[in-house]
Model the fold of this input.
Amino acid sequence: MYTRSSPYTTTARSLINPPTFIEYSELRFLIVDAPSSNSLPLYIKEFERWNVTDVVRCCEATYPTEPLTEKAIQVHDFVFADGEAPPGPFVDAWLQLIEVRFQSAAPTAAEDQAKDALPCIAIHCVAGLGRAPVLVAIALIEQGMPALDAVAYIRERRRGAINKKQLRYIETYKPRTKSSCIIC
Done:
């Protein structure tokens, strides 16, 4: 006889594809696949768990934004073609969001913030394997991580992330923020 419950599952529903947490320096990202209207409550629970302040959508909307805005989570639409590199204006907007969100949240020596209280940006495309990881890789590069190390760091945590065309883009990506010169 077919039963819906299994002795091996817990009573709480969980996401089919677990989120991938990426942390580097003061940056915190949660890469997920695209929620649907039905699965959004499960994603919201995960977002609350990771202190998500912003959700970046890199694909067409698959859910309403109201449940997120009711939880004080801002939604940003940076929709670009699947399998492609992000357009320049989206990269600029992405870097601006990162600067606003993380610069003000960087703990000082006087403040002893709990790690859980630090903000996190959730980002998704359809499967969380292409567009979203590319933007996270750009953020890591801007923070000083070498391009191929950024890709490896993400791929260690999210198998199958970043296709060949996107990898070529990341390899040739030039940081837009000023970095300190180690030779000067």
Notes: The chain has a mean pLDDT of 78. The CA atoms of residues 37 and 63 lie 5 Å apart.
